[in-house]
């Protein structure tokens, strides 16, 4: 299995504030949907609870929690340990780890590919991206984000691949 990270961070590596995203950036939501749809997504219980409409459609939602009694709807997989992941995904799947920071930290030595949105703005927040050793990755794609009246912050989409 390939493990990928998908996230957006601000100029100070902030990814979250008060259990939510600190920004509204619809073009990044669209990129997130495009990148993750059709793939298993792996997330922490807090990120799962941050979704306003429950599990994300057209993707296997896998939630990590130490609470084995945590209730999830049918179709959502609850895991207490990342070692159980291979029981639920195919060997040729690209598994999309979507946060939060505790889950990025858990997979940082396993991750092969990074889909990163850099937002050039300082929002302030309480949750930060885990440190990544970027010297082990090559930038394979970079795209300036389009700004408009609904996407008011400068941002860039980057894709990085771990080199051998
Ligand atoms: N900008 C972005 O791209 C992005 C992406 C994702 C999230 N976020 C933001 O980040 C914040 C949430 O991130 P977070 O780091 O606070 O929380 P999180 O990683 O989403 O969830 C933390 C929870 O995951 C479970 N967990 C953690 N380590 C575990 C382990 N080793 N084994 C089993 N379960 C484990 C625990 O659940 P239990 O307490 O139930 O045991 C823990 O409380 C929110 O503000 C969210 O909006 C931003």
Explain this structure.
The protein has 164 residues and is an alpha/beta fold. It has one domain (2-162): Dihydrofolate Reductase, subunit A (3-Layer(aba) Sandwich). The chain is 14% helix and 31% strand. The protein has three helices and ten strands. The strands form two sheets. Strands 5-4-3-6-1-7-10-9 form an eight-stranded mixed sheet, sandwiched between helices. Strands 2-8 form a two-stranded antiparallel ribbon. Strand 3, helix 2 (45-49) and strand 4 form a beta-alpha-beta unit. The longest helix is centred in the first third of the chain and has 11 residues, at 26-36. It is globular and about 40 Å long. It starts with a strand and ends with a strand. The structure holds NADP nicotinamide-adenine-dinucleotide phosphate. The site of NADP nicotinamide-adenine-dinucleotide phosphate has 28 residues, from strand 1, strand 2, strand 3, helix 2 and helix 3.
What is the CATH homologous superfamily assignment?
Answer: Dihydrofolate Reductase, subunit A
Q: Could you give a short account of the major beta sheet?
A: 8 strands, mixed
Helix content: 10-25%
Kindly report how far apart the N and C termini lie.
Answer: 16 Å
Find the count of extended strands (DSSP E, 2+ residues): 10
Task: Count the domains.
Answer: 1
State which percent range the strand residues make up. Answer: 25-35%
